[in-house]
Structures are given as structure tokens and as C-alpha cells.
Amino acid sequence: MDRKTKIALGGGCHWCTEAVFQSLIGVSEVEQGFVASIEENKSFSEAIIVHYNPDEISLQTLIEIHLHTHKSTSTHSMRSKYRSAIYYFLDEQKVKIILNNFQIEFNNKLITKAYPFSEFKASREAIQNYYQKNPEKPFCERYINPKLKLLIDNFSQQVNLEYIPNNLTNKTA
Q: Which of 42, 19, 24 is CA-nearest to residue 133?
């Protein structure tokens, strides 16, 4: 049985977040764009929607990777554009419990919050799949490659190496 579900994640640039989650086993699709929640978080913030198979990768693992691949303990002036968030479609309580359980892995307080998903606007086509189209660009080498290296070093069982450049995996062509 091919089960699929989804979660939306925001934290940093959606190019970075998209590249990280596209490289995971069990993730079938990543939609890059802008997500809004409700009430005081109804403004759009850069984020992705991750479609995944929970039989191949757990929600807990997705949240753990998210927390470790963006500044989940850092407040800064761009947080309205880069809200540190997990937007749930279902299972509010499960998301909040998982998030709270990860606090022990961090020296500083997690600022990442769980919010109900409300709306999504896709990025323009030209910047979707940005890393896959432009892995040699300075932005990708400076910001995305370190996140992918972190995945390889700490979550190797979850990484689909077909999405990772050879220079990061130490494979030879």
C-alpha cells in the first residue's frame, strides 16, 4: 500500500528547505512557495509542503531534520519572511509533542512553533527546484551544500544519494 501524507515546513530560505527535503527517501514531492497560518500568523512566509510516505520516513524524522537544518533556536529580523514553523494539516497534538521532545537536543530554546496550515502560494516556476537546476551557483555551494552534508553525516539512512552531488558524498563519477 502506498500511503502518502503531508506537512509544511518553514524556517529559512525555501530554496534550502526544498533541497534538503527533496533528497530524502520516502519524500515523493516538495512544493516550494509561501505558507500562511491563521490569526497573527496569517501572513505568508517562505516554506515548503512535503508529501511523504510514513511507511518510509516518519513525521518525527522529518521534524528532526527540519530542526537541524535551519536556525531553529535563533530569532532574527527576517523571521516574518522566514518563520520557523511546522504547519500541520492533521495531528496537531502529535506535531506539538514531537517538537517538544526534541528540545533536549538543543542547548538553546527552540523557537519553532506548530501552526495550523491555512494557505499556500507556489513560487514562480523559474525558482522551483532551484538547487537541482543550479548546484554550482555560489548560493547553493555556500548555504545548501552544508545542509546536505549534515544530512549525509547525521541522517545517512534517510538520504537518497541520487540527489546529492558527488563532491558531497565522496563518490567518484
A: 19
The domains of the chain, with CATH numbers, are 5-169 (3.30.1060.10)
CA quadruple 91, 112, 47, 144: dihedral positive or negative?
negative
Dihedral over Cα of 29, 146, 131, 124: its sign: positive
pLDDT at residue 47, as a whole number: 97
Look up residue 51 and give its three cell numbers.
Answer: 508529501
Residues 104-132: tens digit of each pLDDT? 999 999 999 999 999 999 999 999 999 99
Type of residue found at 49: I
Burial of 112: CB neighbours in 10 Å, binned 0-12, 13-18, 19+? buried
CA proximity to 9, closest of 108, 74, 22: 22
